[in-house]
Amino acid sequence: ELAQASSICRKAAGLPLAIELVANRLRVASLTELASGLGLSEWPTRSAGRGRHDSLDACLTWSHALLPTDAAVVFRRLSVFPGGFDLAAAEDVAGTQPVKGSQVGALIEQLVTASLLEADTSGTRTRFRFNEPVRQYAAARLADAGEADLARRRHAHAFLARAEVVEPMLFAPQAEQHCDLLEFDRPDHDAAMDWLLASGAAEDAQRLAAALYFFWYTRGLFVTGLRWLRAALAAEGQV
After folding, report:
1. How far is CA 48 from the centre of its chain?
2. N or C: which end of the chain has fewer CB within 10 A?
3. To 10 degrees, the CA torsion angle through 142, 137, 124, 71?
């Protein structure tokens, strides 16, 4: 067994992430099968003299090739989240053909098992997150697939809908809890506003800013709120 483990480490070019990804497959493959190469024609290679980034890219390319087709689709679509996200948001963004929304949870579980996605279960809602180099790799694959604009549109519309649902609750009892929910989504609000304004969706940008204004006010986010409100009001288009 020690010889087989040493063989695996050598084939993985000593890359820590590659070794971790291989080790996770012990749940579904034996040590002998792993040492034989997992049915792959190539293992990741450590780039000679071209830096850590190239080696990491090779490792992620290798790991990406191991993913089932639907898991690879979800992997790249989830890259539009700039920070953490919950399952409901993931279903809204990634749950379109060829993947159904009801499949997204199981596919996310595969990505967590493959160490391509992290799960934080410490709060009331499980939050998922990419390491930034992994997210950037997934975003590049999303662009290669020609799906970047569609995924960003779905992301922006999903968080517009979420904000409009929560906004009336900010004036009701337990408003602080609803503000906490919006706090989790702050990076997504920025990404959504960026995309809506860049794509000329002035009305949707103003709707999102209007839904968030009281959240920004109560949390003291005056600079952020004024910046987005002014940008939305200045956007060209019939509103």
Report:
1. 30
2. N
3. 60
pTM of the predicted protein model = 0.78
Identify the H or E element spanning 128: strand 127-129
CB-based contacts of 26: which residues, under 8 Å, 6+ apart? 34
- The answer to whether 26 and 34 are in contact (CB under 8 A) is yes
CA distances from 218 to 147, 182, 212, 221 (A): 36, 12, 10, 8
The DSSP output letter for 49 is S
CA 8, 12, 15, 21 torsion-angle sign: negative
The residue among 135, 234, 239 whose CA lies nearest residue 193 is 234
**CA dist., res. 138 & res. 131, Å (int):** 11
Element (H, E) at 129: strand 127-129
CA distances from 77 to 8, 100, 111, 199 (A): 31, 13, 12, 19
Q: What is the distance between the alpha carbons of residues 128 and 130, in angstroms, rounded to a whole number?
A: 7
Tell the residue number behind the tokens 């190239």, with chain if given: 54
In the chain, the amino acid numbered 141 is R
Other Cβ atoms closer than 10 A to 125 = 13
User: Helices marked H in 16-67 — which ranges?
Assistant: 16-24, 31-35, 52-66
